[in-house]
Specification:
Dna Ligase, domain 1; D-amino Acid Aminotransferase, Chain A, domain 1; 13 helices; 25% strand; metal-binding
């Protein structure tokens, strides 16, 4: 689960991280009062959407010459003027795709005199099974670009979960960031604060880009991106309250309510598969044959007829879907249950696009028989390769 920048900073502030004063607003009428609560005279007006690259983004309605989604303002009047241009408009960034996201919230923050911009994040390092810091002197840039062009400027440091952040760990990170006093002296405490917040709140990502050294030599968290492990949210009802469903795909919200693993993509072939690995393989082979998947959808190993019906409805609700591929390998999941769910869904919502079904495993003969006798216009496939070829051919006419 993702949260907004202003929410992430509030969480980090509770742990003692150095963040600037700021006020979130949802209407232009609130902009003047929000700015007057801050020291000034420099302010930052920040679009709050669940996507990176806001500063380099552009508002659809304002043309190519428009300023981005993060702007400096040198007066209260400037804050209000920027709020008018930003609130309610669609911000397009590298991460939003061409459709962009409507800005419904702004964060008005006190400005900072920046001397240096650094990159610092925490994530789960799958290779070591530990939480790791990623540090670079190249703050303000996409870390993927830094990794590609100058990988020597990135330090990845796994942390021993028994000891936490040691003095040696803090020193190594401070050296990689080329810190000098007083920032160097402050960094050890900040590293421990961030590690504790990450661990205590079951975060899956904590990214500070940039972490700045101000002209007075002190550190400040200038931006913060936080994601939480969805499997651990039951332990954090206060974090669940931070969820902003307006930033999420409606189909993904519905899928979560049915305990389905669903991610909307940009292609035109809807996929229903059981098992995350098989779902990834299905998407890969669709791309191999020249098409693009419209979604990742894993119905799980023990899905019911009702769950399969819900999954089918979610796929067909996507207007971009021009064909559907159902790929089931029945182990715990029975092929006849899938067949019954598909038939129930088709009868309820109709079928206006090609549908290819590949069933294999438990009760496969019964599953195929149910579909064959249903009278539905379904294209049967013998294996995954055959299924991918048939759905791509059907979609492309």
């Amino acid at each position: 689960m993702n949260i907004h920048e202003y929410q992430a900073k509030a969480v980090l502030k509770e742990y003692g991280a150095p963040v600037a004063a700021g006020v979130m607003i949802t209407s232009v009428d609130e902009a003047e009062a929000a700015a007057k609560k801050l020291p000034g005279p420099l302010y930052v007006v920040k679009s709050q959407i669940h996507a990176g690259g806001r500063g380099k983004g552009r508002f659809k309605e304002l043309g190519e010459d428009a300023k981005g989604g993060v702007r400096l303002a040198k007066s209260v009047e400037d804050v209000v003027a920027n709020a008018k241009e930003m609130l309610g408009h669609t911000l397009v960034t590298k991460q939003t795709g061409p459709a962009g996201k409507v800005v419904n919230r702004l964060y008005i923050e006190d400005g900072a005199d920046i001397a240096r911009e650094l990159y610092l994040s925490l994530l789960v390092d799958r290779s070591t099974g530990r939480v790791a810091f990623v540090a670079s002197t190249e703050g303000g840039m996409d870390i993927e670009t830094v990794a590609e062009e100058t990988p020597d400027k990135i330090l990845t440091l796994p942390i021993d979960p028994l000891s936490g952040v040691s003095d040696a760990d803090a020193a190594k990170l401070a050296e990689a960031l080329e810190l000098e006093a007083p920032a160097k002296d402050e960094f050890g405490q900040l590293a421990r604060i961030l590690y504790k917040a990450f661990s205590d709140e079951d975060m899956s990502l904590l990214e500070i880009n940039p972490l700045i050294v101000m002209k007075d030599g002190h550190l400040r968290v200038l931006d913060a991106k936080v994601s939480f492990d969805g499997n651990a949210l039951f332990r954090h009802p206060e974090i669940v309250e931070l969820r902003d469903k307006t930033e999420e795909d409606a189909k993904e919200i519905e899928a979560s309510e049915h305990d389905l693993a669903y991610v909307a993509l940009t292609g035109d072939i809807g996929c229903m598969v059981n098992g995350a690995g098989l779902a990834m393989a299905t998407m890969d082979i669709i791309k191999l044959y020249g098409a693009e998947p419209a979604n990742f959808l894993d119905v799980g190993g023990g899905a019911s007829k009702e769950k399969v019906t819900a999954a089918f409805k979610i796929i067909t609700a996507d207007p971009n879907v021009k064909g559907i591929l159902i790929n089931i390998f029945g182990g715990i999941m029975r092929c006849d249950v899938i067949a019954e769910g598909v038939i129930a869904a088709v009868k309820e919502v109709g079928l206006t696009v090609p549908l290819v079904v590949r069933l294999e495993g438990t009760n496969v003969a019964l599953g195929k028989k149910i579909i064959e006798e249903s009278g539905l216009n379904v294209i049967a496939a013998d294996d995954l390769d055959d299924a991918a070829k048939k759905i791509v051919q059907a979609v492309k006419g």
